[in-house]
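Purpose: get a first structural picture of the assembly so the mutagenesis plan has something to point at.
Setup: two entries, given in the order below. No constraints added.
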Amino acid sequence: MIRLKNVTKKFDGPKGKVTALDNVSLTLRSGELLAINGHSGCGKSTLLLTAAGMLRPNQGEVELMGKPGIYNLPADQRSRLRAGFIGFVFQQFHLIPYLTVRENVLTPLLSVSKEDPDRRVRELMRQFGLEDRADHTPSQLSTGERQRTALARALFIQPEIIFADEPTGNLDDENAEIVLKHLRDYVSTGGSVLLVTHNAKASDYATRAIKMKNGRLSEF
Amino acid sequence: MKIRQLVIKEIFHRKFSYSLSVFATLIATASIVGSVLLLRMHDVRTSSILHQKEAELQQRMDKLQDDTRKSMLKLGFNVVILPEDLDLGEWYSDDYSTKYMPESYAERLAQSDIISVRHILPSLQQKIRWPERNRTIILVGTRGEIPTLHQAPKQPMVQPVPPGTVILGYELHKSMNIQVGDPIKILGKPFTVTTCYSERGNKDDITAWIDLDEAQGLLGKQGQINAILALECLCTGNALPVIRKEVATILPGTQVIERESRALARAEARNQVAEEAVTTLNEEKLGREILRNERERMASILVPVVLLACALWIAVMGFINVRSRREEIGILRAMGVSTKRIFMLFIWKHISTGILGGLCGLVIGSTVILSFSTPDTGITIAAAGSLQFWIGLAALAVVGASTLAVVAGWIPAMIAAGQDPAEVLREE
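Result (structure tokens, whole complex):
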């Protein structure tokens, strides 16, 4: 599903170049929930964005959905790839504030078409316990409900991969557990999850866990 | 979920900032609509004033022409057609022509399509010694006016003198105590006096009028006349060249003179009034044109300044909108929404700003101008322009406002579309 080979990513910092990813190689297979643990600033988010085709590395190659060298593709083709096969979940939820829960879940329709979207939304609302909140805006939801909404949105297109960046970072233990269970359930249906987190408990739900430090990976 | 729904939802979410953009578009549109309408109303008002003044002038001219025509009619025949070889010095000293022309000339003139004269009267007149009374008189032979065939019949100015009768001037009947019905003899031929004129103070007072045939017999001028009297009907004061030209083509070998200068003076006075009125009218036109040019110049300075200020305002609001939607743009881009769609998300919002602002600007601009102008000028919406004009103005307002909003919002929309989702998501 995803293959990173010798990927290096550097940023310009006030004291020169900062290496966020240092010769990273990684493979995510179908049906795998890969948790990458590390402290803040270790390069987890950079790894996720690079793997998702949104952040061009300085060196190395990224293969996504069987397409090698995705950064050789034009930006619009990479966008289409994300629209068709990838879902995102972030720590900050990134819900659109003026849309209802139902409308937020439907936003992937801006880039792809989906057969019977209403049925799919109803399914997701039921699955994530959001039926009563369908017409509420994000500001009227609890943080747990917001993250569940974000997860429902990510799953709307029935993606091949979910990239989850600290999805439990803003949640209490109970809600964090709910989210992680949902991710595990998704993996059990054949999907893949690349989960970057500093929450050590997340590793308990992962099929594989990798530690990250100073831009380098090391297996537990 | 469609782009359209997202645009509408976002507009309702950020009502205040959207209202500010609409307000800027409204101001820009109202300034254009107001300027166009102000100039339009000026034109309508100018047209109305000039039309009214032209109508007044025409009415005045018609009255003056009618007065002149009536005064000329009262003054009698003012055009005399004489044989060409007559020395006019003789005419003015003897008061009659010593040269003659065929009587048929008068008929030929009447049967022609001449329009510059009417009331055609053939005349034979001569100063003679009245042997029976030992007096010098002017003997005039006349047969009455010849009807002109191509013109509507008119009441004749003089009646024919029946054969065997005579009409006497004041001095003749008074000095010799002749009464109507008295038998008299002229050059041995008996006549009955049918009319005695009251005093006229001119040569008519020593004139005797008899039938033309009898005059031709008495004077030995059978079939001949020495003047054709007529009334000019152009009444323009300088019609003589026209009459001369017309008469010359019909009656070659004749000359035309005009008399009764009082009528001419009156016609000339009328022409002068007309010229002054035209000058006043032209001055009014010029004044209105100068005023219009001033208003147009002012609009040409004011409108671009307002447009520029409003465009900057819309652009600033656009930048603020893009800035406040960074997170939204980032997640949409991450979800695979194309740059083109992100761009259109903002452009559609600007188009809606333009349409709404344009319509509001049209209504408010028109209302303000009409409410300020109508009480003074009396120009209503209907009078200000036809339905086509208003449709055109509405189209200009909506299309112009939308163009302004899109142009002003283009750069912010480009920035939004070009936003790097990775950068946004990392920062967030």
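Chain B touches chain A through 28 residues (CB under 8 Å).
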